[in-house]
Amino acid sequence: MDGYLLIDKPLGWSSFDVVNYVRKTIATAEAIKPKQIKVGHTGTLDPLATGLLILLIGSYTKRAPELFKLDKTYEATVKLGEASTTGDAEGEKTFVSDKQPTRAEIVNVLRKYSGDIMQTPPIFSAMKVGGQRAYKLARQGKAVKLDPRPVTIYKNELKDYEYPVVEFVSQVSSGTYIRSLVEDFGKELGTGAHLISLRRSQVGPYSLNEALQLEKLNSDIIRTHLTKL
Hints:
This protein folds into two domains: 3-69 and 205-225, Pseudouridine synthase (2-Layer Sandwich), CATH 3.30.2350.10; 72-203, Pseudouridine synthase (2-Layer Sandwich), CATH 3.30.2350.10. The chain contains six helices and 14 strands. It is elongated, with a radius of gyration of 19 Å. 24% of the residues lie in helices and 35% in strands. The strands form three sheets. Strands 1, 2, 3, 4, 7, 10, 11, 12, 13 and 14 form a ten-stranded mixed β-sheet that branches. The protein is α+β, with helices and mostly antiparallel strands and 229 residues long.
């Protein structure tokens, strides 16, 4: 099998879990060992995030660099009033403020964090520090320092707001962390903020609407839906 496959990653699954599941599904159907099947992905989604994950199968694993740098679109749901050690619902929460910003204030801050900006990745991320993943060091209680880097946020669009919950859509360049964007958003508002859900709906020209549900996957469906670049 050769090609790429669009998957709707479920909540609670890591990107590697999805890769491993697809690898085992193909291996079982072809009666070979899973390690003989090449499967990779083109951009990690956190276990608490859902949505579009592009898998590369067979010789297409060598073409990952063509897809790593594609722009992405996310649907974010945010809770105001609390900060989180991980930037999302998984971390330890700390009360910051009961201030209730107006809708206009939220729109203005979303606009402020648009365009070319410098962004510091979250310490609980897959970024490497001295050859190790930052999140592994952070979980060990070790100090993690990540330098700001340039990213582009093409558009932040407010979809709904009912305190303390904010929903917005963000179109961003590769390498942008929505958790960092949300933390900056909360600091600017003076309320604190963290992600309570995140869904990736677009990667370059590829849409979540075309993605397969993992629970319905089998080798025949994989073979039928494999697409060539």
